Amino acid sequence: MLAALALRNLFRNRRRTMLSMVVIGVGVVSLLLTLGFIRYSFDGLSDAIIRGGLAHLEVAPASVGDGTGNPIIDRAGSPPAFHGWQAVRDRIESRADVQATSAAVQLAGVLLNGDRSMAFMGAAVEPARQRSMGIAVKLRAGEALPDDAPVAGDDRVLLGVDLARALHVEVGDSIVAMVGTAAGTLNAVDLTVAGIFTTGLQELDARMAQMHLATAQRLMGTDDVTSLLVGLKDRAATETVARAIREDVATITPALTVADWESRAPFYRQVRGLYIGIFVFLGTIIGLLVCLSASNTFQMSVLERVREFGTLLAMGTDRGQLARLVVLEAVWLGVIGGAIGSILAAIIAFTINSIGIQMPPPPAAVDPLTLLVLIKPTDFLYAIVFMVVLLAIATVPPILKILRLQVVEALSHV
Amino acid sequence: MSSRRVLTIGLAVALAGVGLAAQNMDALLRRSDVGGFVPVACRIRLSMQQEGVAGSTDRKAPAMSEVELPGVSAVELWRSGANRTLVRFLDPKERGKYLLRLGADLWFIAPGAKNPVKLSPTHRVYGAATIDVLLGMHLADNYRIAGTSSGSTPAGAVVVFDLQAKAEQQQFASVRYTVQTSTERPVSALYRLHSGRDATLIEFFEWAGGARGPSHAKRILVRDLLRKGAVTRIETVEFEERAVPDGLFDLKDPSARKALEKTVQSQSLLKQNH
Asked: What does CATH list as the number for B34-269?
């Protein structure tokens, strides 16, 4: 009864109600589109990180790095120290939720082309296994590394775009890689440039080289690897599988650590923190604007209806009932405004996603970004609830006024 | 005799004494200079061990002639003349690798690389040991005596030379070189950077060979003071004064070095069969 009365009250001053709904709708649209873009960015970035070479999980000796920093930087200077990795790989790969497991060696050294030399960070991989994990190399020229382990003298390398440029090499050229071996001495191997690739990040493109696991092991004079990269069938199961693998390898000595992709991607954590900060800031401003605007509307609405409220009070209506009436009006406004805003946001998101707007590359990135908005059905509900809560808060000043209303004064109010 | 004449003669005698003392010190430095001991043509086999890799760094630790020990690396130095040195790595995994010093240039030769790779002349052979550490730095030629002092150690009296680099290009600006007076052999050498920071401390423990002729330290301890005092122990396993084939120092043609590898392989096969 009170809810129906509140709804009918909304349409007593249609122009003001429409204006309030526009404010609420715009707020909802802004929030949903921002949330959708941030979600797309998170999803895109996490996918790029996982498929860019980090994989879902990493199993590595506990003595090398702590698994929480940047793995490339943490481990590039350390020789591979994972003994007996084949048995561990077989054990992990036998799990039904694991797509594939690939051994990896991280190394650092110098690449030389005649008088030119550049420091590099290398990632040595098993190409076939990485491919089945969905880890792809973004080639700009040439071809990918062969699946089979190269024989000595036929070692190949993929160079980051800027690294290749700095060394003045092209596909097919021969360069020398020089690294410190696991024994603490030096080694050098001739490598043929098979291809030129991009990591998606300029900083890494100037330093990264990729080679076959066998090449890196030959270079470093070891059969050990740095870590095992585990690709999962379902990203959502990352934590569960990590826990299971952790329990599975707990008995192995020396101890192994299992780290998920997020803990090994400080860049992702930074971007996530930044975006969440922006979203909270934006949400606060929108919330404040909606709240103030709605509060003003409700104040005016109550002021216009002082005599009406006075009459209701004189007839024995409870002050609490009046307060509930105002709150219900706010709820209706929030629900209807939020629903309209949600519909608008869905239409705009669909349009943006259909057009495929290209944005310039984000800082430090190489490729332009396609603007997409990913809105989940639950987001609409959250947006409406957020607006209802805001509007309920906005009713506090008018409700206070109603609670202080004197019946006699209210009846003579002009 | 007038007092003026006595004073003049006294002054002349004193100056002559100072000059003589300086000459003596120069001569002592030259006689005790490690760079001067090593024969012009020789082959030296060394085993080297880094602290923390295996065993302790106790000065009285047992000898580590067994190169198969984990953390112990073996190298062979071939020297012909002051400017040509070949470092051959002997560990099974390191076979076919060489460091070749030709004058001021240092080259790295690896079996996996067709062409030699140029390195910094101060590149470390193993641990903290550079070629200069292994063969000496010719202190008498490259440094001048800035001061001397006397002291004593449990082994006897020593002379401490404070040496300053003659040229700015020298890797180390100054050296504190301690020589045992009785044997005229160095006890230690502390190398300092141009910044004044201590860089490397080399301690010599046992000397082989005559006091005047070719000689070599049997054991050397190298402390890398720039890396928290990391220690590399070096032991001379074999020392042979002999003619060295020129082909070993050929940068382009590896045939002499390959022949050397084959000889060594057949020798080790013979040893195994025996």
From this structure: 2.50.20.10
